[in-house]
């Protein structure tokens, strides 16, 4: 009510005072939590022992990680690791809550590291990842790794300058891969889809720690290293291959951006080339009633260093030989365990599934032999020579 002069009636003051008191007492967000009062899981380790799933949770306090105007380079960032066990992944995750003291938030998980033991149990790995992926807070684009090292060592590893684990290969591998492309980063959803796809051999990057490269002053500084990959073989156990074993895989990777080779690949190279953005095709054919594959690779390059007066055409021929030998060597590394390191059978199933099923029904038709890789055709094109002119012939 208002009087003729537009003033609020005196009788309404008590009611207005009560309404204001109620409004002031209401919180803007009932369930909000201060950032420092939550435990943020940024990486997960998965192990398997005695029919139990063991889950390690790497936890960071984001107040120590955020780069603000008060951020100090070189300041140690503490890493907390929680350990949970259970017959299922949900039970293992829930067991961490018993002693976490703070609410555990899983929405910032960026990487999952699997031990050798759980990789041997392909069905357990599938179920564990399915349980993690179903949890509403965890995203689909989580990086997936395998390791031979203790998971606690991997999850407690820091970056250069004592940066947090968020600034390492574990969480941000793309930066290093763009400068040196060997084993490509893999996301969990892609690995699981390849496990379910017939003919495919999923490749899981293998992460380890090396103490041979970096020092801080005179003190050894351990750093992450991708030293190879685990290939999940459907017929036998998961096999580990070193980076040297898999050097031919980079030439049939669509994601490959930049990789260096010496020509020739010997103790006294004549030049070093940077090869980038390869394009490949895999064709199947039959010879003497046996399955054969032809791999065609086209790759661009440029001269990075020369140690001898050699023509561009000669460099291209030498580079083609190096790439061809690496592809053949990588293929033959998997023959003993029948591991399809080049995913030849996967390409057959993808492009000719009917033919793949016909061959699968005949014993030995899909068995990998040395002669199964029939031809490897490589074309290297040097696009430029850098600051110095090169001799064409």
From TrEMBL:
<dbReference type="InterPro" id="IPR046953">
    <property type="entry name" value="Spore_GerAC-like_C"/>
</dbReference>
<dbReference type="GO" id="GO:0009847">
    <property type="term" value="P:spore germination"/>
</dbReference>
<keyword id="KW-0472">Membrane</keyword>
<keyword id="KW-0732">Signal</keyword>
<keyword id="KW-0564">Palmitate</keyword>
<protein>
    <submittedName>
        <fullName>Ger(X)C family spore germination protein</fullName>
    </submittedName>
</protein>
<dbReference type="InterPro" id="IPR057336">
    <property type="entry name" value="GerAC_N"/>
</dbReference>
<keyword id="KW-0309">Germination</keyword>
<keyword id="KW-0449">Lipoprotein</keyword>
<feature type="domain" description="Spore germination GerAC-like C-terminal">
    <location>
        <begin position="228"/>
        <end position="386"/>
    </location>
</feature>
<dbReference type="Pfam" id="PF25198">
    <property type="entry name" value="Spore_GerAC_N"/>
</dbReference>
<feature type="domain" description="Spore germination protein N-terminal">
    <location>
        <begin position="31"/>
        <end position="209"/>
    </location>
</feature>
<dbReference type="InterPro" id="IPR038501">
    <property type="entry name" value="Spore_GerAC_C_sf"/>
</dbReference>
<comment type="similarity">
    <text>Belongs to the GerABKC lipoprotein family.</text>
</comment>
<dbReference type="GO" id="GO:0016020">
    <property type="term" value="C:membrane"/>
</dbReference>
<dbReference type="Pfam" id="PF05504">
    <property type="entry name" value="Spore_GerAC"/>
</dbReference>
<dbReference type="InterPro" id="IPR008844">
    <property type="entry name" value="Spore_GerAC-like"/>
</dbReference>
């Amino acid at each position: 009510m208002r009087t003729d002069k537009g003033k609020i009636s005196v009788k309404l003051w008590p009611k207005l005072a009560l309404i204001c008191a109620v409004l002031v007492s209401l919180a803007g967000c009932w369930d909000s939590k201060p950032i420092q009062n939550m435990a943020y899981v940024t990486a997960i380790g998965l192990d398997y022992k005695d029919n139990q799933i063991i889950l390690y949770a790497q936890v960071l306090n984001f107040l120590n990680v955020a780069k603000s105007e008060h951020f100090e380079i070189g300041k140690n960032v503490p890493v907390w690791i929680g350990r949970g066990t259970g017959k299922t992944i949900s039970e293992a995750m829930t067991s961490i809550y018993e002693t976490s003291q703070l609410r555990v938030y899983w929405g910032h998980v960026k990487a999952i590291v699997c031990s050798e033991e759980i990789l041997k149990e392909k069905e357990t790995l599938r179920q564990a990842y399915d349980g993690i992926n179903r949890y509403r807070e965890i995203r689909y684009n989580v990086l997936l790794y395998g390791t031979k090292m203790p998971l606690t060592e991997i999850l407690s590893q820091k970056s250069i300058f004592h940066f947090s684990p968020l600034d390492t290969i574990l969480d941000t591998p793309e930066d290093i891969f763009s400068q040196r492309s060997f084993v490509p980063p893999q996301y969990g959803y892609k690995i699981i889809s390849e496990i379910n796809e017939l003919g495919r051999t999923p490749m899981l990057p293998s992460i380890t720690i090396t103490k041979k490269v970096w020092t801080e002053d005179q003190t050894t500084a351990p750093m992450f290293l991708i030293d190879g990959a685990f290939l999940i073989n459907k017929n036998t156990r998961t096999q580990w291959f070193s980076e040297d074993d898999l050097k031919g895989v980079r030439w049939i990777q669509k994601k490959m951006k930049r990789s260096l080779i010496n020509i020739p690949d010997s103790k006294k190279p004549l030049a070093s080339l940077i090869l980038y953005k390869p394009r490949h095709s895999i064709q199947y054919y039959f010879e003497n009633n046996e399955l054969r594959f032809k791999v065609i690779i086209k790759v661009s390059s440029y001269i990075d260093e020369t140690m001898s007066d050699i023509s561009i055409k000669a460099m291209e021929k030498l580079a083609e030989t190096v790439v061809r030998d690496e592809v053949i060597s990588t293929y033959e590394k998997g023959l003993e365990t029948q591991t399809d390191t080049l995913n030849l059978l996967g390409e057959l199933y993808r492009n000719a599934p009917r033919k793949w099923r016909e061959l699968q029904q005949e014993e030995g038709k899909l068995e990998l032999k040395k002669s199964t890789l029939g031809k490897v055709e490589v074309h290297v094109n040097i696009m430029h020579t850098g600051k110095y002119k090169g001799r064409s012939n």
